[in-house]
């Protein structure tokens, strides 16, 4: 088994069992071997045979929990972990596997609690710190996430995964030079770490260094040719610099990217191919991977019709940005007798004139960037928002997770992302007959709200450029 001669190992275990049928360890090790072969059902069967002989075999139970978690049978995995802990209360790995299962369900607070219990038993459990950092990162608690990753590094100084996660956080914090520096540190430890080149590419493109970003993506692909996310970003950046010859070399791969099991950023393909069916598939795969959280309990219906409907606009582009210029006068022209208009800035800050204008256009404006998606959703519930309008969709620094929690009874995709979100938590998309012709309606998970001429507003009071 340790030489990876797995079929020979199974034959040896079977001979041991033939000689001694009550050999629980032989069944247990058979299960481990099947697991290495990715024969998950056979692995569970072997572990169960070990348990039939030795009912308190905690290691067999925990390995069943690992397999169930990998099969995405998360509730069953959690149940098995609890069984392990009833046998062996100080089994750190049981809390760890439970944490992973809870995290994959979007129960981030419960996951962090499980990781803390694992660490209370086993303080040098670096993998628990890593996964705690990921959970904190998903809650937008970025400094706490970095602290968790650094604790993992204190235990294991060459832990490349901890470094790369720090790089991701730094990139999210717009600390781009620091992120690149961390990626270089990762590559000094593990030169074939494709993800380090990928994160470096993201940071470089955000600095406007598109050709250097493409070079980084190419290095990632040289290590990992099936790295779909890296190829997607490479194609997108090549399109931005009009490198059509390079795109032509990969154009036959475009239909396959993000349309099977691996998720990619859907936005990049809206301009790379005109195929609404595949755009929807990419969004569905992306959403399933990124937003597993369960919705919050339904909000109580009001006992009487409110005086004004409350509309909330959510964006990270309340600043000098095309979306801001397009939407500004819409916000100012809302009928305040019928609507109360709320603005929520979900990322970034600015003191520019456009930001000041936008803040004045709302009845209430709140900067929520430091809050987790779940806490923002709870805030929206508290503000009694009736209609939530996401102006970002799948664009950079979007906070789609807010809507995955079902922040408002009605949730709408508008303006920033003209494709389908591929989810059941976005109810409508504002469109026109040019954006979504009738034959393309079936390729949108959202119901369409058609405006009569164009879905795209503008500010007709803006002075035209003299250039």
Q: Give the mean pLDDT.
A: 96
First-to-last CA distance: 73 Å
For the largest beta-sheet, the strand count, sense and barrel status come to: 7 strands, parallel
Please state how the strands of the largest beta sheet are arranged side by side. Answer: 3-2-1-4-5-6-7
Low-pLDDT parts are none
Helical segment count: 20
Principal-axes shape call:
globular
Q: Class by helix and strand content?
A: alpha/beta
Radius of gyration from CA coordinates:
26 Å
Number of strands: 7
H and E string: HHHHHHHHHHHHHHHHEHEHEHEHEEE
Oligomer: single chain
Report the portion of residues in β strands: 5-15%
Write up what this structure looks like.
- The chain is an alpha/beta fold.
- It has helices at residues 6-19, 24-36, 40-53, 58-70, 74-87, 92-104, 108-121, 126-138, 142-155, 160-172, 176-189, 194-206, 210-223, 228-240, 244-250, 276-290, 322-333, 353-361, 373-382, 401-404; strands at 309-315, 339-345, 364-367, 387-390, 410-413, 428-431, 447-450.
- The chain has a seven-stranded parallel β-sheet, covered by helices on one side.
- The longest helix has 15 residues, at 276-290.
- The chain is globular.
- The mean pLDDT is 96.
Characteristics:
20 helices, 7 strands, alpha/beta, single chain, globular, 7-stranded parallel beta sheet, 467 residues
Summarize the model shown:
By secondary structure, this protein is α/β, with parallel strands linked by helices. Helices cover 53% and strands 7% of the residues. Helix 18 (353-361) links the parallel strand 2 (339-345) and strand 3.
């Amino acid at each position: 088994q340790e030489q990876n001669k797995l079929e020979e190992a199974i034959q040896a275990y079977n001979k041991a069992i033939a000689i001694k049928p009550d050999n629980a360890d032989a069944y247990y090790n058979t299960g481990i071997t099947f697991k290495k072969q990715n024969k998950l059902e056979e692995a569970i069967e072997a572990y169960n045979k070990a348990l039939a002989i030795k009912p308190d075999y905690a290691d067999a139970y925990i390995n069943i929990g690992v397999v169930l978690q990998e099969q995405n049978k998360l509730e069953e995995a959690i149940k098995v972990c609890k069984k392990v802990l009833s046998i062996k209360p100080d089994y750190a790995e049981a809390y760890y596997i439970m944490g992973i299962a809870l995290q994959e369900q979007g129960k981030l607070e419960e996951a962090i609690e499980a990781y803390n219990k694992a660490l209370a038993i086993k303080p040098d459990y670096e993998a628990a710190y890593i996964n705690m950092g990921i959970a904190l990162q998903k809650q937008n608690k970025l400094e706490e996430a970095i602290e968790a990753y650094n604790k993992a590094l204190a235990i294991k100084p060459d832990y490349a995964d901890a470094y790369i996660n720090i790089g991701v956080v730094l990139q999210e914090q717009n600390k781009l030079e620091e992120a690149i520096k961390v990626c270089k540190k990762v590559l000094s430890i593990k030169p074939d770490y494709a993800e380090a080149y990928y994160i470096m590419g993201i940071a470089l493109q955000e600095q406007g260094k598109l050709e250097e970003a493409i070079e980084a993506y190419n290095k990632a692909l040289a290590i990992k040719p099936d790295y779909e996310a890296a190829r997607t970003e490479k194609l997108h950046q090549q399109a931005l610099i009009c490198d059509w010859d390079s795109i032509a070399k990969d154009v036959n791969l475009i239909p396959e990217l993000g349309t099977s099991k691996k998720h990619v950023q859907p936005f990049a393909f809206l301009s790379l191919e005109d195929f609404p069916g595949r755009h929807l598939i990419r969004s569905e795969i992306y959403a399933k991977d990124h937003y597993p959280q369960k919705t919050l309990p339904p909000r109580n219906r009001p006992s009487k019709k409110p005086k004004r409907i409350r509309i909330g606009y959510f964006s990270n582009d309340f600043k000098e940005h095309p979306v801001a210029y397009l939407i500004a006068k819409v916000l100012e022209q809302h009928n305040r007798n019928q609507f109360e208009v709320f603005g929520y800035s979900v990322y970034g800050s600015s003191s520019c004139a456009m930001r000041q204008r936008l803040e004045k256009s709302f009845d209430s404006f709140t900067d929520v960037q430091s809050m987790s998606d779940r806490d923002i959703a709870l805030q929206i519930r508290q503000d009694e928002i009736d209609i939530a309008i996401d102006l970002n969709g799948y664009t950079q620094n979007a906070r789609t997770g807010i809507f995955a929690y079902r922040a408002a009874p009605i949730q709408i995709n508008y303006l920033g992302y003209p494709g389908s979100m591929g989810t059941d938590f976005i109810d409508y998309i504002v469109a026109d007959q040019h954006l979504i012709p009738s034959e393309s309606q079936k390729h949108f998970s959202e119901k369409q709200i058609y405006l009569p001429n164009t879905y795209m507003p503008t500010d007709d009071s803006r002075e035209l450029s003299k250039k």
